[in-house]
Amino acid sequence: MTLAAPADASRLWAGGFEARNKDQEEEVLTWIYTILGEPRPKGEYEDILKDGVVLCKLINKLAPGSVKKIQERGTNFQLMENIQRFQAAIKKYGVPEEEIFQTADLFERRNIPQVTLCLYALGRITQKHPEFTGPHLGPKMAEKNERTFTEEQLRAHNAELNLQMGYNKGASQSGLGAFGNTRHM
Predict the structure, then answer these.
(1) How would you write the pLDDT of the chain (185 residues) with one tens digit per residue?
(2) Where are the alpha helices (DSSP H) in the chain?
(3) Are the CB atoms for 16 and 43 separated by under 8 Å?
């Protein structure tokens, strides 16, 4: 018996994560090198970012002094420290922790799409920093979504809330005793 693959399986790669989007990766690299004011080197996306040097330079442009020491070359461990310093700096800059990739996602190429999402999150957060006047990456963030309700709408909502909580006609769990005990009948 053979099983058909789900229709959207083409979006997934062997690791089970979302497939890479080369257009987004290109947009991220263009954004980074525009901010750095440097020509973009030739090479693959993950190879350009792998050692964390470019990422540390990027966060230092966005928030000067964020990464004090950048290892330009060294052992794998020393280069991974660049990525960890970048991660700590962007967390401090305002990128939510759940949007920050793991060091192995980039260095060991385990989840490159997560790296891209993280850099989009960084690009989005730059909008909250008025001192940053460079290009932004990704969609514009919403500023406010205020809503006003009349007293009548608020009262109607309170009635709905009580109905949603359910009505149990006086039932309770008072006779169940401690958890794990059998029920004697």
Answers:
(1) 333 333 444 444 444 456 888 999 999 999 999 999 999 999 999 999 988 999 999 999 999 998 898 888 888 888 889 999 999 999 999 999 999 999 989 888 899 999 999 999 999 999 888 888 888 887 777 777 778 888 888 777 666 655 555 555 555 666 666 656 665 65
(2) 22-36, 45-49, 53-62, 76-93, 103-107, 112-125, 151-164
(3) no
Whose structure tokens read 């996602």?
105
Return the number of other C-beta atoms located less than 10 Å from residue 162's C-beta. Answer: 9
Q: What are phi and psi of 162, to 5 degrees?
A: -65, -35
Map tokens 């009948």 to a residue: 185
Please name the residues in contact with 115: beta carbons below 8 A apart, sequence gap of 6 or more.
46, 49, 101, 105, 106
Q: Are 31 and 54 in contact (CB under 8 A)?
A: no
pTM of the model: 0.68
Contact 27, 137 (CB under 8 A): yes
R_g over Cα of the chain: 25
Nearest-10 Cα torsion for 93, 104, 67, 129: -20
